[in-house]
């Protein structure tokens, strides 16, 4: 198993993982993306992944405005209705994280894909939605023929120590600092 990590406070961790997935799909690799705490929404990478045959499973809150945003009738204004609030975790949030974790374990056990991406898994770990010791053990026992990519802020040192490639994404500056809004085709 080769383990990659995209972590840090900057924007672009999920984007980097999806870029890797799209490149690999171009070479015929079988890819599965499991998104923790993210709902199936209007993000361009989800639409592109579908066209390329990349499996994406999103286990989070869906955007109530996704249809309007996809149709070009409105822009994402970051209303936060689709975000998981760490201060107000619901039973549904916990259940969805558990389902995502179960799918990740089954995916490695089956060994039927080449690349497994666990998007925002570090947020799920930090919120206590996944059993940390079980996660470490699972990583240590993962299939030797699989590439596993983990994303999210605050990658634990124990996981970093196990990784073969670690990229820390740091924001130097960003258009959000000026206009405060995500841009269609760039941030989503």
Automatic annotation (TrEMBL):
Q: Which residues form a coiled coil?
A: none
**Cited Gene3D superfamilies:** P-loop containing nucleotide triphosphate hydrolases
Q: Which InterPro entries has this protein been placed in?
A: CblAdoTrfase_CobA, P-loop_NTPase
SUPFAM superfamilies hit by this protein: P-loop containing nucleoside triphosphate hydrolases (SSF52540)
Quick check: keyword Transferase in the entry? yes
Q: Which UniProt keywords apply?
A: Transferase
- Keyword Kinase: yes or no? no
Entry's Gene Ontology molecular function annotations: ATP binding; corrinoid adenosyltransferase activity
Pfam families xrefs: CobA_CobO_BtuR
Its GO biological process annotations read:
cobalamin biosynthetic process
> In terms of domain of life, where is this protein from?
Bacteria
Please name the PANTHER family in this protein's record. Answer: CORRINOID ADENOSYLTRANSFERASE
Q: What is this protein called?
A: Cob(I)yrinic acid a,c-diamide adenosyltransferase
Q: Which species does the entry assign this protein to?
A: Syntrophomonas wolfei
Q: What does UniProt list as this organism's lineage?
A: Bacteria, Bacillati, Bacillota, Clostridia, Eubacteriales
């Amino acid at each position: 198993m080769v383990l990659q990590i995209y972590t840090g406070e900057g924007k672009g961790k999920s984007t980097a993982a999806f870029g890797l997935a799209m490149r690999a799909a171009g070479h015929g690799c079988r890819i599965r993306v499991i998104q923790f705490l993210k709902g199936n929404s209007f993000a361009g990478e989800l639409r592109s992944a579908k066209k390329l045959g990349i499996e994406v499973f999103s286990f989070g809150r869906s955007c109530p405005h996704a249809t309007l945003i996809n149709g070009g009738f409105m822009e994402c204004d970051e209303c936060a209705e689709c975000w998981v609030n760490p201060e107000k975790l619901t039973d549904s949030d916990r259940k969805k994280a558990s389902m995502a974790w179960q799918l990740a374990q089954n995916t490695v056990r089956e060994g039927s894909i080449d690349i497994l991406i666990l998007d925002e898994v570090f947020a799920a770990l930090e919120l206590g939605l996944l059993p940390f010791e079980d996660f470490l053990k699972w990583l240590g026992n993962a299939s030797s023929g699989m590439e596993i990519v983990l994303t999210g802020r605050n990658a634990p040192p124990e996981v970093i120590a196990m990784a073969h490639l670690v990229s820390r994404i740091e924001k130097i500056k960003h258009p959000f600092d000026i206009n405060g809004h995500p841009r269609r085709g760039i941030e989503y």
